[in-house]
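During data preparation, a discrete fold description was generated, as reproduced here:
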Amino acid sequence: MMDEMNVTNEVIEETAAAPVETMDDYAGEIDSSMRSINVGDILEGTVVGFTDTEVTVDLQYAAEGIIRAQDYSAEPGFSIKENVHAGDTVKAVVVKLDDGNGNILLNRRQASEALAWEKFEQQLEDKETIDVTVKEAVKGGVVTYIDGVRAFIPASKLALDYVEDLNTFVGQTIPVRIIQAEREGKKLILSSRDVLRERRAEAKAARIAAIQEGAVLDGKVDSLQTYGAFISLGDRIDGLVHISQITNTKRLKHPKEMLNVGDEVKVKVIGVKDGKISLSMKALEEVPESAKPAARERDRDREHGREREEKIEIPKSEKLTTSLGDLLKGIKLN
């Protein structure tokens, strides 16, 4: 008897401890199920089932939503069984309030496009970088899809260099940026080259910033100008050896007096500023102590863009005039 009473008391305690549900707890669901829905509305729901031909969506409404396979996605190769999963959240536009079976007929493609174009316009303005997968190669470029909308990447905007075979990009995921978005004409143009060019420039700037002043590097003469020689340091980085920094041995009128394009040289970094590298060859030369003052003075003249003038001294004459008697002195007349 006591055992029965204990069990009863436990049940009473558990019942008392359990929260009591009221109509207020279902107010949101009730309001949702009774809301007004019209053709053209964009609704959000959860995938609760699917077949080969259609997807069933819970709209938290008196009726469920149905999306036919052809209205779900326009992407080539789309398959409900492979690309749709129970629990997926979808947005779709109302096409019919009753499909003939008591369900609301929806179109996800239309909703996706309407929402997507708003996003595309914002991404164009923000110059946002997005990743896409190339689906197919066509004449003049490749095709991809963003949020179910077909987008075109011209061959000239696909890579940094010329692309001979567009098919090599099919299946690749690449970074792109929207460069044209026309909602009315449904024209969505992308560029990967712009993104790659920016990333290359950023990487180059980082490599230049890592070069320390005083470092001694190997390089190759890339070009000669009247004011100096450009030296390739590899990895798309170059620096300038000003004509005054080529040698201590003599004054040069042109770098070609000592250098040729293609020469391999050793240089010292004497400055890195605003992404430009200043180099010196003469800093690695051994200069006799006696020649150093003259070399420094020569450098100052070069830096100020002037040639040093030689001073010529005219010996002073004891007499600036000569008399006639002096000229005839020593001459014998017969």
User: Anything to note?
Assistant: The CA atoms of residues 220 and 264 lie 4 Å apart.
